[in-house]
Write a structure and sequence with these properties.
About 35% of the residues lie in helices and about 20% in strands. By secondary structure, the protein is of the alpha/beta class.
Length: about 240
């Protein structure tokens, strides 16, 4: 890596040269065509004319945008604009990519496509994803970092993190009328109505004994990263 131990500010151009960044907000240039937009970013990344032409064609092919090369940015759907943002981040063949909420606002199918694409490009790049959609990184991340109020509070591989939170997640069923009291009492991570009309519930926390709403003890459940996220951040923003 550039600098070799020095501060990033001392060699900022070298760091920028190996980095691709995808912002969360779609602040694009609506009057430009897709190809014009990518060529503009190629110039900003100091690619010469031949490099720009080749790389713009390459990234559009990778992200499935070739057929839209002449389409104005303003006419693209939100899903396609997300692909445009990924495309510009790929220009210059960066070794490090930083993606801020890459699946924000996408429908389930497009989220899967983007997630699979990120998994593919991470084979020969370091990809750092900032996201609140924990399920999007559960199957593709090698390392997960949880940050709270600007401080790193937990990090590790998904497998190690899930293993460390065994015994903190329980599941069971309750009646509809019991939900308000249950949500007030426990940190609820999932609710789903069952075929028989009851509510399947997952809760997380530090329990001396299995939680027993309605005097019926819940059973231990395998934790997910979403459970861990809600365990670490508690009931912040609860609607009830």
């Amino acid at each position: 890596m550039p600098g070799k131990g020095g501060a990033i500010q001392e060699d900022l151009p070298a760091y920028k040269a190996i980095m691709g960044y995808m912002p969360q907000q779609q602040q694009l240039y609506p009057e430009m065509s897709l190809a014009q937009f990518l060529h503009y970013f190629a110039v900003l990344k100091n690619l010469d004319r031949a490099q720009a032409k080749a790389q713009v064609a390459e990234v559009m092919e990778k992200t499935g945008l070739t057929a839209l090369r002449s389409t104005r940015i303003a006419a693209l759907s939100g899903e396609m604009k997300q692909r445009v943002l990924i495309s510009q981040a790929l220009l210059g063949d960066p070794r490090l990519m930083i993606l801020d909420e890459p699946t924000a606002g996408l429908d389930p199918l497009e989220r899967v496509r983007v997630r699979n694409f990120i998994s593919h490009i991470s084979i020969n790049k370091t990809v750092l994803i900032a996201t609140h959609v924990v399920s999007d990184i559960e199957c593709i991340a090698k390392q997960v970092l949880f940050i709270k109020s600007g401080q790193l509070i937990l990090s590790g591989s998904p497998m190690d993190i899930l293993s460390a939170h065994q015994g903190k997640v329980f599941q069971g069923e309750v009646r509809h009328q019991s939900l308000p009291a249950l949500i007030h009492r426990y940190n609820v991570t999932h609710l789903q109505e069952t075929a028989k009309g009851s509510i399947a519930v997952r809760v997380c926390g530090d329990f001396d004994a299995p939680p027993a709403p309605e005097d019926q003890a819940f059973a231990p459940a395998e934790p997910t990263l979403t459970d861990v996220y809600l365990y670490l951040y508690g009931k912040q923003g609860s609607l009830l």
